[in-house]
Amino acid sequence: MSNNDMFGGSGSLHCDPTDLALLSLGEEVDIDTEHLDSCADCTRETASLRRIARLSRQVTPQAATSPPTSVWTAIAQEMTSNSATISSATDSNVIPMRQRKAPWIAVAAAVGVIVGSLVGVVATAENIAPAPVVAQASLTPFPGFTTTGVANVMATDNGDVLAVDLSDLPPANDGYFEVWLIAEDATSMISLGAVNAGQNTQLPIPAGLALDRYRLVDVSAEKFDGDVSHSAISVVRGELSV
Amino acid sequence: MSLASVTAIDLHQHRRGGKRVSDPVVRPIRSATSDLTPEHTADAALTQRFVASLAQDQRYAHDMFAEVYQRWSALVYSVARHAMRDDHEASEVTQRVFISAWQSRDGFNPAAGSLPGWLLGITRRRIADRWRERSRPTSNTTDEVPETAEGTEDPRVSQIIDQVVLADELARLGHPPGDIMRLAFYDDLTHVEIAERLSLPIGTVKSHIRRSLTRLRTRLEVTHDEQ
Q1: Are A131 and A154 a contacting pair, CB within 8 Å?
Q2: Which of A113, A186, B78, B227 allows an S-S link to A80, with CB 3.0 to 4.6 Å?
Q3: Would the ipTM clear 0.90, i.e. be above it?
Q4: 8 Å CB contact between A43 and A36
Q5: Averaged in consecutive runs of 10 residues, what is the pLDDT profile of chain B (227 residues)?
């Protein structure tokens, strides 16, 4: 493409765009100044590039910094918990990060503690035949994490269990990882118990739980802090499909 | 045309063709595609998928929003850090920006502006909110930031955005364009001196200078492309 095609094609020959770039950097360029002075396009191009050069000289090249992982965690939780009222929500719904734990999470998690105490019963039962998989979720990482995995709901003689396989987990940092089932509308969640990387962890699902409602499998990073509620730091999540 | 059927090409044409009265950047005539980097194309594709996800299942939109966050949160956070001069407050601003964006996502119109432009527009408003909260009379801290009226956009934020965007784009220019532009901008070398210093042909240096300048300009334009 010739300069004249680029600049519209009529009138006298336009200045070479590369020369205009050098000119905008303050270099002395052998250029048709008569044309430059009379041509609005070339004048505008030079002024525009000059502005870029001036602004660039005021900064130091530096790649933008990513926010801490906790920021996405808080956003994701807000997105999930507000999903029913998104269109009418306003900025006033934004709650500071440190106040994020909703009471219902604590209640649901307390239920989870009771359920969690049953884990040993199933895990130590001998000779459990391979049970049919009735639902499966592939677990995908939240931003900042690389863990992936699969969760299978299996119908055993002792009731449904959730079998969790995780590729790897981030360093626990004085904590552990916990498996949750979250209701589709995010109005409640249930803790199934702790999980480690790699192994096929089988966690009992409370009998009578409406699995078609609690379809989201979530693994959270928890601290040994006695707080039974969800830490709001999810590592992976996936939806169960039959 | 339904939003879901908007293609990357459509988005590009909309942006070029859109008439914007308050456009802060002069748009000179130039070739249509030479300034587009693979990154621009990827960004357009991400915008397209994001828009398409809005019409779909909520969880799909959720996942797409996570991708949008991964692509643009560093820019938003960096702008917030410069504006708030406090990492924790910058985190809170970033959180508010993306929650606002999620809540108002149906209002995003790719024909009216770019995705980063939309996010940075929200960033301006959330930063202005925080500055206002800081300067309220009930606060004991004396702050040099004067109060601005609600809903107004502060030119200081625009300046910060320009600086963060340019610093980021300059860092991403790579080799040799990034080296060439550093020598041109900060060491004030001419293109002939740069060619000698880097043992590159003069023509190569010249075309890198022009391409890098227009790339920086395009990046600034896109981030100003609010709605």
Answers
A1: yes
A2: A186
A3: no
A4: yes
A5: 36 34 37 58 87 83 90 96 94 96 91 92 92 70 49 76 94 93 96 96 96 94 80
Give SS3 for B215. helix
On whether both B66 and B5 belong to a single domain, the answer is yes
Q: A123 in helix, strand or coil?
A: helix
Domain range holding A20? 3-57
B25 at interface of A, judged by CB pairs closer than 8 A: yes
* B99 interfacial to chain A (CB closer than 8 Å): yes
The mean of the pLDDT values for chain B is: 79
Q: Tell if the CB–CB gap between A21 and B206 is shorter than 8 Å.
A: yes
Asked if residue B75 belongs to a domain, the reply is: yes
Residue of A4, A41, A60, A71 to mutate for B, most B C-beta atoms under 10 A: A71
Inter-helix orientation angle B177-186/B155-171, to 10°? 130
Of A44, A76, A142, nearest to B26 by CB-CB distance is A44
Do A91 and B100 lie within an 8 Å CB cutoff? yes
CB contact under 8 A, B213 and A68: no
What's B4's domain CATH number? Answer: 1.10.1740.10
Confidence at residue A228, expressed as pLDDT on a 0 to 100 scale: 78
Report, in this order, helix, strand and coil percent for chain B, each rounded to 5: 70, 0, 30
In a domain, A88, yes or no: no
Q: For residue A62, is it within any domain? A: no
